[in-house]
Design a protein that fits this description.
Strand content: 5-15%
CATH architecture of the largest domain: 3-Layer(aba) Sandwich
CATH topology of the largest domain: Rossmann fold
Number of strands: 9
Radius of gyration: 21 Å
Number of helices: 13
Length: about 290
């Protein structure tokens, strides 16, 4: 396979690109912030000045970007290179409609979009243990499938465009919604005078044990961990709701989840870990949960 491009070398993109490079794949890299790609360039990647310049040199281009708007802007540059047969693998978390629209646009330009969002965070990216949820043209997927082995432990092909994106959004809304439910339960317990350790012991001996495995993290109060920013959590829940509305699926519980993350963002917690939403729940209840961990 000729050149491989990578656009978006941020928190997740940089370690993924690094693993591709370490696996012997020559890379052409671009990020709007030049310094974000500096380490990769020092390790042998070739820098490019724009998405168009990346596509001009590559048969396959990976993107790892904040959201649909950024992906659409980069795709415009990729298609401007007029490279027939280009395969665009988008690792970003997007919306169903955005993927559908971009798939049609790239197909018209004789390019193939594989929407392949990932789960596992920066740690999983650096360790090569991500889960990839890919969908789109089967021949294009088969052509790039070996590349995923550099950074993923589990790779799923899900068929028609957009299914990978929906799988990722379902994962995130369950994970993020479940986190709030656990936190709300412990805040209720704290209001009644139950210590977090005492309550966790009870729950671990009861049916709620299925859901309390993350309680030490969610209640550990390490809100400045570099893990999964609350602003991204809010964005991903919003994308799930947007996709659900496009598909005619009511999600009333997720609407409530979105309100809590939005409130936490409005309180200035966007750059903290997603579980800093605990402070918003505590503030509303007038109580603080005992620290775990």
């Amino acid at each position: 396979m000729a050149g491989i491009g990578f656009i978006g070398t941020g928190t997740i993109g940089a370690p993924i690109a690094g693993r591709l490079l370490a696996s012997g794949h020559p890379l052409v890299v671009f990020d709007a912030r030049r310094e974000a790609s500096a380490d990769l360039v020092a390790r042998g990647a070739r820098p490019a000045g724009s998405p168009r310049e990346v596509a001009a040199q590559c048969d396959v281009v990976f993107t790892s970007l904040p959201g649909p708007a950024e992906v659409a802007a980069v795709a415009e540059g990729l298609l401007a290179a007029e490279r027939p047969g280009l395969i665009h693998v988008d690792l970003s978390t997007s919306s169903f409609e955005a993927v559908q629209s971009l798939h049609a646009l790239e197909l018209e330009a004789d390019a193939a979009l594989i929407d392949a969002p990932v789960s596992g965070g920066a740690h999983g990216a650096s360790q090569g243990t991500l889960a990839v949820m890919a969908s789109g043209d089967r021949a294009a997927f088969d052509a790039v499938r070996p590349l995923f082995d550099a950074f993923a432990r589990s790779v799923f092909y899900l068929g028609a465009p957009g299914r990978g994106t929906i799988a990722k959004l379902v994962n995130n809304l369950i994970f993020l919604g479940g986190a709030l439910l656990v936190q709300e339960g412990f805040v209720l317990g704290a209001k009644a005078g139950l210590g977090a350790r005492e309550l966790l012991e009870i729950l671990n001996a009861s049916s709620a044990k299925l859901y309390t495995g993350m309680a030490p993290l969610l209640l550990g109060r390490a809100f400045d961990m570099t893990l999964f920013k609350l602003a991204i959590a809010k964005k991903d829940v919003a994308l799930a709701l947007e996709s659900a509305r496009e598909m005619g699926v009511p999600l009333p519980i997720v609407e409530a989840v979105a309100r809590t993350y939005r409130a936490a963002l409005d309180e200035g917690r966007g750059e903290r870990a997603f579980f800093a939403a605990l402070q918003t729940i505590e503030h509303a209840a007038g109580v603080q949960v005992e620290k775990l961990g």
